[in-house]
Design goal:
heterodimer; A: alpha+beta; Peroxisomal Thiolase, Chain A, domain 1; 2 domains; two-stranded antiparallel ribbon; globular; B: alpha/beta; Rossmann fold; eight-stranded mixed β-sheet; six-stranded mixed β-sheet; 31 helices; 20 strands; 12% strand
């Protein structure tokens, strides 16, 4: 989403005419890393000149040096508050009193909405098939995340992952680890005429805001609040809203913040914007089913939003996501293919 | 001394000798003048060797050091002794270079083959550029020759016997870092640094004293291992060439007996062998093919008056074996192709074909992993026409059905740009009829690839009444660019190659029905030098496909193109050839022949007829010659060379025979017509009556190659 907003700013300011903005993430390729002790051991070995020095260094080796650091866990852990992303979701679920069942229900719905959308071919236009497999001879033209067989009962069987004793957040009511990429072509009005292009949508504005890292899941609440104020629009005017489903509890929390003034005030949001009805929110499923390839999600949400607005011949849409480290981002677009 | 061909200057007591001087040709060859000048130059170096610190040989050309001896010089040799004398002249110059007391460094950049590589070998040090154009090798064997300027003598000394045999017997070329790896070059540098770095190699003994190389030398450099190495090499040559080719065996003789000889005796035997081979029929035939392939590089069709369309992005319609192969070819040539078919499984079939081809190249290190990934991913597999307006060349390879093809073309024309060249990879349908589907048919032509695309070099470009010269020339140049051999053919049943192939397959069917065993037929053709016998070939093509094409040819050409009923019977029984694992032969899962199909025999007469091998060959090859003569008189192609090249590159007609028509010329037209007349009486009138062209040739006492 930052890429899209950068492109928007550059084009709006006249600095650039045509920009492709987007992101790619391959979470399945995340490596295991050597830990700090092992890294230091290697450094010592490099410095050791004589054989005696080398023997000396080798003698300091201890087996635990070999225990790896899992890069993806490191990447998804906040360095300031020390919580990983799942734990921040647990915190919101606890504080706002979301039950395990409510979260599983939400996750289950996400899967079924996504499956329905896939079956109706609603993703066909927005997916560019790519070749995959060891020999690059298979064609991937559909997301593999959504599960038709998903049931609330089935989801209930899983153990909580981030707080194993008393938690409610499981791997199934959070987004899965996913690879993905997405991009948008963003051009100025002059470029539109020059290259004879037909626009799908117009970016109205965007907004980013910061908040406490422990409750980063509330980022969308703050960002949506800021964006609506900047654009002088109401949430009701939005025909569709995409809020990224990092965790079921986290989206539920944002929804609560939009309707409950008391909760909103905790995040310095002084206006109750009102609820987003089910028929407007993540209508084709969200990241719990489709996945959240971190670097790509922002632009993917906008792509999905633009396609669904076009399909519905609706006008305004808003996409928002939370950002690890304590931020929220939101972008508003207008469908031009009515 | 006035230097015309080779530059000479002295800087800091170092002599710089540059080839490709004063020349506007892209390739420098060792012609008579150059050799004479080189000789004088080397004599001069000898007299000045006291004052000089060394000699650096380099090139003034960007992509060529020395492309070898002038082939027309070799082609002009009349007698063995003339050939041997020519080789000795070169050897003497190179000996003098080798005998220089001062350091000599050859800086190889660009093509350096044959006599060029032999020249480099006579220098004390060889360094090469890492440019993609730089390649060294001794390809003489491909022309049926032995390297005649000391290559067989010096190559083993530099790279060791096993490497040398491999290079000389296969004629393959080596580039880049591999030059260093096998020891042909002492070091490889960027081309801009080559001359500076040459100074470092002055007087430096090439450093081949590593433990590994010393062990290798010990292992391969003794009497016993020499014997084994030569025995293995001989076996492998016989296996690969089936004994048809004289040159590799001659090379082995010279090199094996040479081990015991000194320089002069070795070189004398090399020169003698060269003289013997270069006037031999086989080498003359192979030289003939060389000249034909040189001729092909020039576009022979009607002159374009407008600007040629630039064919930089491509699309393949249909993702079958051919479509996938075409997509591969386009992707390999950076055309980022669209590959379109109707369903995902169909697309995946095409992707599989492309991936197989790329994987093969990856395995043979013709491609890096990154290139593989980039090229493979450059294929857009899709079911829609999205983006097709960006393409410049569309090749259709969908099902062989005229009506469906016409519908697709009419539809396609709505999406492509008006200047997009559209082609059909049809192997049997009328290009003329297809052209009717177009509003702008001038941009349309047939473009017939042979299966499998990555192996078969020939591409037939088929014109119809309205094909524009621009379309033809653009396609011709494109085919050359993707390293295939184009031949322009006017539209007609079976075009060029399949039409001449028809009697080859048909006669096999009739012979079988007459009771000649399948084994005898296929073997007679193999012994003629064909890569596959007709029955085996039909299995490869697909018997059902053969039947379909045979019908079209029969309809188009009349009763002389009639085929036996056998294929149709097999096809009905589900014996479709290799693809169904049973045809004339049976196949295992890997596609290897495991035996003859006994059930085929039950369809054939019980009583066996034995026929002389040469009689079988007459039955099969004479009607091919007959048909080719008709094609020439119908002017479907312009020249006999196009027929010969088409058959060599399209169906693997034995190159050492120089082509079908060159073979016919060699055998004598009179004899051929006589035999045809005989067969017309004893076998079948329609199939064997000599063509009007052949009769005319007899009357005018002309050969095929007398027609220009």
């Amino acid at each position: 989403m930052e890429a899209v907003s950068q492109a928007f700013l550059k084009v709006a300011s006249g600095r650039s005419e045509v920009i492709i903005a987007g992101g790619v993430e391959s979470m399945s390729q995340m490596p295991l890393l050597y830990n700090k002790e092992m890294t230091e051991f290697f450094a010592m070995m490099m410095k050791a000149k004589t054989l005696a020095d080398k023997v000396k260094v080798i003698s300091t080796f201890r087996p635990p040096y070999l225990s790896p650091v899992i890069a993806i866990e490191q990447g998804l852990t906040d360095p300031f508050c020390g919580l990983n992303m799942g734990q921040t979701a647990e915190l919101l679920a606890r504080e706002l009193g979301f039950t395990r069942e409510q979260q599983d229900e939400f996750a289950n719905k996400s899967h079924h909405k996504a499956v329905a959308a896939q079956k109706a071919g609603r993703f066909v236009d927005e997916i560019v098939p790519i070749v995959f497999g060891a020999k690059l001879d298979k064609l991937l033209d559909i997301d593999v995340g959504p599960r038709e067989s998903s049931t609330v009962e089935g989801l209930a069987k899983l153990k909580p992952y981030f707080d194993r004793k008393s938690g409610t957040v499981t791997v199934a009511n959070s987004c899965p680890i996913t690879d993905g990429g997405s991009a948008l072509l963003i051009v100025s009005e002059d470029a539109l005429k020059k290259y004879n292009l037909k626009p799908m949508a117009r970016i109205i504005d965007y907004h980013f805001t910061g908040l406490e890292p422990e409750r980063m899941g509330m980022g969308p609440l703050c960002a949506i609040d800021g964006l609506l104020k900047r654009t002088n629009m109401t949430l009701e005017q939005m025909d569709l809203v995409e809020i990224n489903e990092a965790f079921a509890a986290q989206v539920m929390a944002v929804r609560r913040g939009l309707t409950d003034g008391e909760v909103a005030r905790r995040f310095r949001v002084d206006k109750v914007h009102g609820d987003i009805p089910d028929e407007k929110l993540n209508v084709n499923g969200g990241a719990i089913a489709l996945g959240h390839p971190v670097g790509s999600t922002g632009s993917r949400l906008i792509v999905t939003l633009a396609h669904e607005l076009k399909r519905r011949k609706a006008k305004y849409g808003l996409a928002s996501l939370c950002i690890g480290g304590g931020q929220g981002g939101a972008t508003m677009i207008e469908n031009l293919m009515v | 001394m006035a230097n015309q061909k080779i530059s000479f200057e002295v800087k800091n007591n170092i002599a710089y000798v540059g080839f490709g001087f004063n020349s506007d040709k892209s390739m420098t060859v060792l012609d008579e003048d150059t050799l004479r000048e080189l000789n004088d130059l080397v004599d001069d170096l000898h007299t000045r060797s006291k004052e000089l610190k060394g000699v650096i040989f380099h090139t003034h050309k960007d992509r060529c050091f020395l492309a070898g001896a002038d082939i027309s010089l070799i082609a002009g040799m009349k007698t063995e002794s003339e050939g041997a004398y020519g080789a000795e002249q070169g050897q003497n110059i190179y000996n003098k270079i080798e005998d220089l007391s001062i350091p000599t460094v050859a800086c190889i950049h660009g093509i350096c083959l044959g006599g060029g590589t032999e020249f480099a070998l006579s220098c004390k040090s060889i360094i090469a550029s890492d440019d993609s154009s730089t390649q060294m090798g001794l390809p003489e064997v491909k022309l049926g020759l032995i390297p005649g300027f000391g290559g067989t003598y010096r190559m083993p000394k530099r790279v060791g016997l096993p490497n040398a045999l491999d290079l000389i017997l296969s004629g393959k070329t080596v580039r880049g870092n591999k030059l260093k790896r096998i020891g042909l070059a002492d070091e490889v540098y960027p081309k801009e640094r080559l001359l500076d770095m040459a100074l470092r190699h002055m007087g430096k003994k090439s450093s081949k004293n590593g433990l590994v190389s010393r062990l290798e030398k010990m292992a391969s450099d003794n009497f016993v291992s020499h014997k084994i190495i030569f025995q293995k090499a001989r076996e492998s040559v016989l296996k690969k060439t089936k004994g048809f080719y004289q040159a590799p065996l001659k090379i082995l003789d010279v090199m094996e007996s040479g081990l015991m000889k000194g320089r002069q005796a070795y070189l004398t035997s090399e020169a003698e062998a060269f003289g013997e081979l270069c006037v031999g029929e086989q080498s003359k035939n192979l030289q003939h093919i060389y000249f034909l392939t040189e001729e092909v590089k020039k576009y022979p069709g009607p002159k374009a008056t407008k600007e040629l369309p630039v064919l930089s992005r491509g699309a393949a319609l249909g993702a079958g074996t051919m479509g996938g192969g075409i997509a591969w070819l386009m992707a390999d040539n950076d055309m980022a192709p669209i590959m379109k078919d109707l369903t995902k499984p169909a697309l995946e079939l095409g992707l599989k074909q492309a991936s197989q081809n790329f994987s093969g190249a990856l395995k043979r290190k013709r491609l890096t992993k990154d290139e593989y990934e980039r090229k493979m991913r450059s294929i857009s597999a899709q079911t829609s026409f999205d983006g097709i307006q960006k393409t410049d060349l569309v090749i259709e390879a969908i099902v062989e059905d005229l009506e469906i093809k016409k519908k697709v073309f009419a539809d396609l024309e709505k999406y492509v740009r008006p200047d997009c060249v559209v082609t059909s990879n049809t192997s049997s349908l009328s290009v003329q009829s297809m052209s009717e589907a177009f509003e702008h048919s001038e941009r349309f032509a047939g473009l017939h690839f042979f299966n499998p695309v990555h192996m078969m070099p020939l591409v037939e470009i088929i014109s119809h009444d309205k094909t524009s010269p621009e379309t033809l020339e653009a396609l011709y140049k494109w085919v050359l660019k993707v390293k295939k051999t184009p031949v322009i053919v006017k539209d007609g049943p079976g075009f060029l190659v399949n039409r001449i192939l028809m009697p080859y397959l048909n006669e096999a069917g009739f012979l079988l029905e007459e009771g000649v065993p399948m084994k005898d037929i296929d073997e007679a053709c193999l012994n003629f030098g064909m890569p596959m016998g007709p029955c085996r070939l039909l299995d490869e093509v697909g018997i059902d496909v053969g039947v379909k094409v045979a019908k079209i040819l029969h309809k188009g050409l009349g009763d002389r193109a009639r085929s036996s009923a056998l294929s149709a019977k097999l096809s009905e029984k589900g014996f479709l050839g290799k693809k169904s694992k049973s045809g004339f032969y049976l196949y295992d899962d890997a596609g290897k022949v495991i035996g003859e199909n006994e059930e085929v025999k039950s369809l054939l007469p019980k009583s066996k007829k034995t026929m002389e091998e040469v009689d079988i060959q007459m039955r099969v090859f004479l009607p091919m010659i007959n048909e080719a003569s008709t094609i020439l008189s119908e002017k479907l192609v312009e020249r006999p060379g196009q027929v010969d090249l088409g058959l060599i590159f399209g169906i693997g007609f034995p190159p050492f025979r120089g082509g079908l028509l060159r073979y016919a010329d060699g055998e004598g037209i009179e004899r051929i017509v006589e035999k045809l007349k005989e067969l017309a009486i004893s076998v079948d009138k329609d199939r064997y009556t000599p063509s009007a062209r052949l009769l005319e040739m007899i009357e005018k006492k002309m050969k095929f190659y007398d027609y220009k």
